[in-house]
Amino acid sequence: MQPFELSLTEASRAVRAQELSPVELTESVLARIAAVEGRLGAYVTVAADAALAAATRAEREISGSGPRGPLHGIPMALKDLIDAEGMPTTASSHVRAGHVAEHDSRVAERLGAAGAVLLGKTHTHEFAYGLTTPQTNNAWDHSRVAGGSSGGSAVAVAAGGATFAMGTDTGGSIRVPAALNGVVGLKPTYGLVPRTGVTSLSWSLDHVGPVTRTVQDAALVLSATACHDPRDPASVAGPVPDRFPGGDLRGLKVGVPRNHYFDRVTPEVEESVRGAIERLAELGAELVDVEIPMARYIQAVQWGLMVPEATAYHERSLRAVPDLYAADVRILLEAGELTSAGDYLRAQRARTMMRDAWARMFDGVDVLAAPTVPMTAAEAGREAVEWADGTTEAVSDSYVRLCAPANITGVPALTLPVGHDRAGLPIGMQLMARPFRDATVLRVGRVYEESVAGAGRLAPVAA
């Protein structure tokens, strides 16, 4: 096994035992990037020299005073919305050409303090405003979309081009590409991981979180990055999970949605996810049927919040350099100018009602289990999907539909791989819990992961 094939947990164990040096690990991951990047397009920038210098420092520190923690010497990537001092933050857009970050984001600062090694910046759908990341190819099938907007982060991790990566999630942008590329993605509770120094899409929906190979890896990254930051008005001093016991799930109630989450999904996705839910029952969980409240309003509330907030953020540059935006993003930003204040306020009121209704739903269950996305990775360029009930839906609308509720309500949401379709493409299951029960979704995910074979498997990308 090559070092790039190790999960974060495995690599950390080897580094701390001084069986593997951070330099050897980083060199292996950089070689993997060089071998597969031409077909995948996961990275905007690869800072190889800086990464090797950081790995050398980490090796010296670990040999001297010992490791700072589990991320010390581990090579990782940042989505190109997340500032790292001295590196470009382009948001994968011509609008940001020439931009160089003057300071670290709070997340980059925390990861640097933990001793992680920054490899570079990964592609996003332009300004995170899309669900496909067209610059990047799916790690399992290069003819299909990577998912978005954190497509580069998910593909890098799935292909062995980063031991872990950070993404952002406004309507599924961590979970969608993680599910489509067969890796783990965590959208923490709103405000648990600070967004200072992170380019915004929609301030009231934006989250920062990890993309990893295993659930245990995601737990390690969350522990390092969660903190209170007064510079982020949404930041909260919530509980930072530090223990994620395995074992069984006895005494835990898992909600199984009667509506919304299994409406208009492919048979293969439904079969895999329901099979995984049954596995949770075999591990001791009690399954409880639940009704998803206000399901008919989810799409309207998501777009009613996101579109005007995104347009407000881009107001000046949209007027100054509109032609520098990609056509799909520019249309959405211009549409936001037509949204009235009354529409935005109604969306905010509906969000409050939805949060309250979801809190009542969680009075009866500990975790909600459901598909992450209704179908596997679509062919690149495909614009719509036709469902068995005769309805037609845009591909992007399809991918956001099952992820948006967790952004609207702010609850923690974890996706992990639970199978493949007939074409061999990954299928993801989503686990959600009430706010600040991040440890609960991680525990359930870890227990499931430990009960099945193949956890942490890399995508079959030939070098």
From TrEMBL:
It comes from the Bacteria. Transmembrane segments: none annotated. PROSITE patterns: AMIDASES (PS00571). Residues 24-442 form the Amidase domain. InterPro entries: Amidase, Amidase_CS, Amidase_dom, AS_sf. GO terms for molecular function: catalytic activity. Coiled coil: none annotated. Belongs to the amidase family. This is Amidase. It comes from Streptomyces pactum.
